[in-house]
Amino acid sequence: MSLNRNEKAAVIEGVSAQAAKSQTLAIAEYRGLTVESLNKLRVDARSKGVYLHVLKNTLARRAVAGTPFEVASESMVGPLIYGFSEDAVAAAKVIADFSKGNDKLVIKGGAYAGKALNPDGVKALAAIPSKEVLLSQIAGLLKSPVQRMAAVVAALAEKKGGGAEAAVPSEAPAAEAPAA
Q1: In angstroms, how far is the first alpha carbon of the chain from the final one?
Q2: Average pLDDT for 59-82
Q3: How many Å apart are CA 125 and CA 121, to the nearest integer?
Q4: Exposed e or buried b for every residue in 137-170, given b needs 16+ CB within 10 A?
Q5: Which class is domain 5-128?
Q6: Which residue has the higher pLDDT, 132 or 42?
């Protein structure tokens, strides 16, 4: 089914808007995928915040013209699915993970930070942990020295005699008043 001029303009505008707020573009050839497999890929992409769309390559080229994703125009040949994501690794991760379990989805390239990525570049980008994982790793690193210091202080207090009881000062009995 062919799109008329206004429909094509609307598609270009929608994809351009998505590209403007995205950091990453991952491109894959989907030739031979069943509808069921493609739907699984779309559900997975949607759950991870990835805009996944099958586009005519000429429309895709026009939509990314003037954006940092224009460098990927050479990879836009054949039946392709385009994945845009605001998260730097989400689009690459969704497509790379799905291609591991399904040999019909072939990574063709992508773009990140104004640089074109070859298939190996997309896979390398996908291997980077997500933002949430990196933040939790940093929190764990920051927490580690504090935990070690607390363990050392507790060990010293226990060695000095009494552990937690030694840290709490005991009240001395009140001195008796002299008899008059």
Answers
A1: 114
A2: 91
A3: 6
A4: eeeeeeeeeeeeeeeeeeeeeeeeeeeeeeeeee
A5: alpha beta
A6: 42
Strands 24-29 and 115-117: unpaired
Decide: 83 and 28 in contact? Cβ < 8 Å: yes
Helix axes 35-47, 90-101, angle to 10 degrees: 150
Domain boundaries, the chain: 5-128, 132-164
Which neighbouring-strand residues pair with 28? Answer: 81, 107
Q: What is the pLDDT of residue 132?
A: 79
pTM, rounded to two decimals? 0.72
The candidate with the shortest Cα–Cα distance to 130, out of 94, 98, 100, 82, is: 94
- pLDDT tens digit string along 136-156? 888 888 888 888 888 888 888
